[in-house]
Amino acid sequence: MDKKNVKKEYSNGEITIVWQAGMCIHSGNCVKNLPAVFHPQEHPWIQIDNATTTELIATVAKCPSGALSIKPID
User: Fold this and answer.
1) Domain coordinates of the chain in residue numbers?
2) Residue 58: closest CA among 40, 38, 33, 41
3) Per residue in 3-42, pLDDT tens?
4) Residue-level pLDDT at 5
5) How far apart are CA 19 and CA 67, in angstroms?
6) Cα dihedral sign for 4, 32, 66, 47?
7) CA distance 21 to 1
8) Which letter does DSSP use for residue 41 in this model?
9) How many separate helices (H) and strands (E) can be counted in the chain?
10) CA distance 46 to 26
11) Smallest Cα–Cα separation from 30: which of 12, 47, 16, 15?
């Protein structure tokens, strides 16, 4: 599998964070803004249950590349 095409989803029951590896520019904004959730050296690297939905949405909105996005759960 091509690492640039990797797309992963992480859900907390209210929202889903979508991460697209090929778009990530590794700015570190996610880690700096919400270090309890984003752990690049761990698997899974997004531990979505370590923050509120409001905190997650605010942090994902700061992703400069759009590699992180939010989709509501239907």
Assistant:
1) 3-72
2) 33
3) 678 999 999 999 999 999 999 999 999 999 999 999 999 9
4) 84
5) 5
6) positive
7) 12
8) T
9) 2, 3
10) 14
11) 47
